[in-house]
Structures are given as C-alpha cells and as structure tokens.
Amino acid sequence: MENKDIILTGIRANGELTLGNYLGAIVPMVKLQNKYANSHQINMFVPDLHSFTTPINHNDLYLKIIDSLKFYVAAGIDLNLDNVYIYRQSFISAHSELTCILNNFTSYGELLRMTQFKEKSDQLKDNFISAGLFDYPVLMAADILLYGALWVPVGDDQRQHLELARNLSIRFNNKFNQRLFVVPNTWEKQQEFIGRNNGARIMSLKNPNNKMSKSLSDPNGTILLTDNPENAATKIINATTDSVGIINYNIENQPGITNLLDILALLIDEPLEKIIKNWQGKKSYIELKKAVADEVKIFLTNFQKKLLEIDETSLMRKLESSEYLMRDVATQRLYKIQQVVGLRP
Ligand code: TYM
Predict the structure, then answer these.
(1) Domain that residue 93 falls in
(2) Does 200 map to a domain?
(3) What is the CATH number of the domain that holds 238?
(4) Ligand 1 pocket: which of 145, 154, 182 to mutate (most atoms within 8 A of CB)
(5) What's the Cα-to-Cα distance from 119 to each of 129, 183, 215, 216, rounded to whole Å?
(6) What pTM value is reported for the model?
(7) Residue 139 belongs to some domain of the structure
(8) Measured from the CB, is residue 262 less than 6 Å from ligand 1?
(9) What pLDDT, in 10s, does the model give residues 254-291?
C-alpha cells in the first residue's frame, strides 16, 4: 500500500440510517471518493462497537451492520476501487486497545464537556448512563488516529469529537516528543475540503430545533433510508414550520423552513445560495414542501432500487480483504504506541 493522505469516516449501525446521515456524512464521502480516489485512500468503516453506547436490540445488530455497508454501496461507495476500504471496527482489535491507552491521556473534564454526551444522556429513558457513552469520543479518536487520517468528513454534531481527536494527537506527540500521530486537519479546513461553508445539520421535521436522529423516538420527524417513499413524502408535507408566512432562510426564527431549504439544496446538489434565491420571499410553504417531498420521493425510490441490486458476495469479499489489510496497518501503528508508552521493548 502506498502512502496516501487518508479520508476516513464511519456511521454507527444502531438502527436504520437517516436522511441526516446520508446528507451529512455519506454524500460528502461519495463526492470525495469520486474526486480523490486516485490520489487518496478512502476508509469508510462501520463503528460497530459504538452501536450500543445507547440501547439497541442486540438480536439484529449484526444484520444492521451489514445493511449499513450496503447503504454505503447504494449511495455510491465503489467497491471496485483499490483505494477504497470498508471494514468493521470490532474486527480490528487495535481500535479497542488504542482506546484503553488514550483513555489515560484524556481528562474527565474534557469528556464531560461533550454536548453529544449531555444530549444523549438526557434522552436515556432508564437513566442508565454507561461508561461506554461517556468514553465514546475516545474510541472515535482511536478510529481516526490509528490510520493517520487527515480528512474526516462528518456532520456538524461530530465537531467536538473531531477536535478531541486533534487535541489527543497533539498532546501525545508533544508528550513523547515524536510525530506518532498524524494530526487531523482543523474543522474549517475539513469544511473547505468537503466544499461546504459549515457542517451539515439536518433537523427533525417535527422538532426542527433538534437534530434528525435515529435514536430519537420521533418517527415523524425522521426520514429513514428504508422508509416507504410515499410515507417519507408525507412526513415532509406535515413538517413543522412557523406562522411567519414568508419563506426565509433563518435558523433562529424559521428553523423548519430553513431545514427544508437545506434538505433541498443537499438532495439536488445545488448551492444553498441558489436555492435560497429561488425561494426567499415566496409565501406558499406548501409549494416548498411539495418540491422537497417530490425530491425525497425520487431519491428514496432510486436508492432503494439500488439497495436491492447489491451483490452481497462481492461486498463480503471486499469487506474481508479490506479488514485483512487495515488490521495490519492498525496493528503496526498500535505497536509503535505500545512501545513509546513502555508496553513493548
Ligand atoms: P453517527 O452514527 O451519529 O452519525 C454518522 C454521521 O452522520 C452525521 N449525521 C448527521 N449529519 C447531518 N444531520 C444530521 N441530522 C445527522 N445525523 C448524523 C454525523 O455527523 C456523522 O458524520 N461517532 C460517530 C461515528 C464515528 C466516526 C468515527 C465518524 C465513530 N468513529 C471516526 C468519523 C470518524 C457517530 O456516532 O456518528
């Protein structure tokens, strides 16, 4: 394997993936693959150990993990490209071992400041806040640092976690006075690389002040990639808006309308500015909703058709060969870290 700059991302497999996951993380990754697969290495993995930081049904987890990989392929991740690697985190044990080491270089205070931790703990029905949920950003840092990824395309909700990975790599390199970890690029640079001004954040259709999320018990606010296209269109038509009566892109005062404009721009891949120009000042919310609903319906119909066409045998073959290679890369980097912390000669 040549030494190429690495673009890496992962999506938890704790449920069906949402339109938020698709627009916030999968689309940027596919675009980057299409642009950079010749010059960069693309790691698109399933962080399966992250799946049960919040409660799930363990009986169908394994199938969900494979389904997630199928979603990547249906979205355009190309299994025939040599520089593209797909793998499952738990199949490469170095992720867990590096997490154990990094835990000792991460402070309680910095994990306590993670807004995702606060939000997710507040949503837990039984109040059982696991150490796994608290420690999850450190495992994410290990996912990134093991491979030396410079580029980590993620949605806006993962910004703090990316910053933790940067801080840990800098802290570690300084402490041991060596360039042990590649420092991932800053959030601003990442957005420039993805070609966005800011990270995408698709909001719930029912509570547009909350992120669209698979772990929220908000089925009408969330569009799943497996939703029936007609039902998904109805969710858009019934989306919560406001009483202003004029279309404006205004996150604070008109979060529902703003969310619809964001979804439309990302879904049809047009610059947001152009979409705003087309719709700003118009009075018919239903016209905007119908336009978004139509696009969602077209997108889901095509996407689900592609899902059915995926050849599982070649998917599994690619998965196993990627895991074989990535295990080697990760184990070698882990060994260097074990040496500097004194665990190996
Ligand atoms: P997860 O599984 O919560 O989300 C996966 C990706 O989808 C993005 N996303 C969204 N983007 C826009 N709007 C939304 N409503 C929305 N919901 C989710 C997330 O920002 C993310 O990019 N910790 C990560 C997974 C992970 C990871 C990693 C990512 C583990 N290790 C290493 C990158 C690198 C997570 O839970 O994402």
Answers:
(1) 6-195+311-340
(2) no
(3) 1.10.240.10
(4) 154
(5) 11, 27, 11, 11
(6) 0.95
(7) yes
(8) no
(9) 999 999 999 999 999 999 999 999 999 999 999 999 99
